[in-house]
Amino acid sequence: MNPIIQTLKDHNVSDEKITEVFQALTENPLAAMTIIQSLGIPQEKLQPLMMMVMTNPDLIKQAVEELKLDFSKVEAAKAKLQESN
Q: How many whole angstroms separate alpha carbon 41 and alpha carbon 67?
């Protein structure tokens, strides 16, 4: 199982909420960070999770595929993020 999904499940995040997080990651990565922070994950676990999400797009791609979401939206969001920097 994808380590991001596993971490969320370890903290009793529902499958529905996990899907919401990854849909947000594909559409608006900054909004997804807000959602992740609101899940009630303890700070000592939240910080490594956020780093994993922000620094490893391959893990996001794997999770999106595992959840059967559309990865092309991830690529579009990544391009949009790079344009704004």
A: 21
Residue 57 vs residues 6, 7, 14, 54, 71: alpha-carbon distances, Å = 16, 16, 22, 7, 11
CA dihedral 50, 25, 23, 46 (to 10 degrees): 10
pTM of the model: 0.76
Q: What is the pLDDT of residues 22-56, one digit of tens each?
A: 988 888 888 888 999 999 999 999 999 999 988 88
Of 1, 10, 82, which Cα lies nearest the Cα of 44?
10
What number of H helices and E strands is found in the chain?
A: 6, 0
Q: Are 3 and 52 in contact (CB under 8 A)?
A: yes
